[in-house]
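Hey,
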Amino acid sequence: MRRGAETKQKAARRFKGRVTLVLAFFALVASTLVARAVHLQVLDKEFLNRQADTRHLRTERISAHRGTITDRHGEPLAISTPVDSIWANPKEFAAAVDRIPELARALGVDSQMLIRRVTRSMDKEFLYLKRHLSPEQAQRVLALKLPGINVQREYRRYYPASEVTGHLVGFTNIDDEGQEGLELAFNHWLAGESGAKRVLKDRLGRSIENVASIRPPHHGKELRTSIDLRLQYLAYRTLKSAIKSHEARSGSIVVLDVKTGEVLAVVNQPTYNPNDRSQFAAARYRNRAITDIFEPGSSLKPLVVAAALESGQYRPSSIVDTAPGFIDVGPKRIEDTRNLGRVSLTTILARSSNVGITKLAMTLQPDQLWDTMTRFGFGALTSSGFPGESAGMLTHYSHWQPISQATLAYGYGVSVTPLQLAQAYAAIGDQGSMRPISLVALDQPNEAQQVISEDTAVAVRRMLEEVVRPGGTGTKAAVDGYRIAGKTGTAWKFASGGYSEDKYISIFAGLAPASEPRLATVVVIDEPRGELYYGSDVAAPVFADVMSESLRLMAVPPDAMPVREPGNVMQAMSDQAASR
């Protein structure tokens, strides 16, 4: 009995020892866990938070859109539309590299190309996979739930008027930075400033919460241009038709507001669509009306007449003897189509006499002629600020030979842009004052500079009206109901070794309405093919078509309505009453 009791006591002590041991073990484990928790939650809290933030918190860019470009009436010429770009963190995406073919199908790209791009960038944390997808396309990609695949909101430029305003507005690159035209010239104004935010992401790299805003985005400012989209469409349509009918190489039209210097329309052919990046070639997208120069031919003659009147040696009624129909200057003989004899300054312009204008120019001092041309803006940039604008070419008079002065009189040896020529004619239309060119809509006209006297400007303008009337060279530029002042020009193109005898530039520059000019317009057609190539036949009708509709759109009242005799008016009223 005693031995059995001792055995039970020993078993009880062993059991109690084992329980104590187990309890001690659990107490030790619990103490260890508590100590570890305290260490993590108190001592290493900041370190661990930083590690968690590093793995799950990201700073993302908030894209800012470019400012809208509009015409003077608020019609959009360039707008920004939201798009999404898909990007990857190759390190995170490596775990799902076997799903690349699936991703490639969703992106619409070649899977082998995508594999090469991803595998070459395994050391990077950011890689664009495809940019500028529609939001719907981007959501289809995200629906695959691939690790490391993210979306970034961006903006893509869209041009509603497409090729009608392409040369003027220009375009941006894929990063929405201005590359040509107004997009480049006013990039600092149009470009927005991106913002930033801190987001929380899950293990697949998907944003699940916006944690904080670091800085808000600042969107670009709106640019209101001087362009009247109605006139722009009209000039574009008319020029395109003329280029096609005359099989010409290229062409340009510039329309200026005489009273403000604003560019209301500027078009070129051939053109391009800025929405189609495959058409981006310098030969297509350069704005010929502002960047290309040409010799103006007879369209320069009114400015020579202005220089003669400004010299004080001539009056509007002065007579020049053009007999016997030619003049020799050095080795060159300058001729008219026939001997006009003694003619007025008005007739020199109306009949475009090379002999008459040469004799007029040769009586002036070289510095007088050069000074007038420079005051009209030749040989210098306008104030348009357009990228790539040409200053033209006007050699200093100290380098002139007699033949230089003679040929300059009828538009050779000097080169201008269509915009420069339009600005010079606008000065004639604005009482001799020249206003700075503006491609931006103005609330108030900029201050003008008087380049010739008001009397001279009025006299030249009246002479130019005779060019468009019967007997002048520019009758096809006439517009029903309006007095038109303008000048034709036909110039041989310069080629290697001299001037080509079968390549021409056809020009018409004019003002409407002549009584109080509102519009100055220049039409240039380069290398018309066929039987018609004179400015009077090719460029003048284009001017008439553009002006007739432009004046109507701008509600400019006619200044040449036919005058009916009182008796005829009464008879017309009686006939109308009888017809009822």
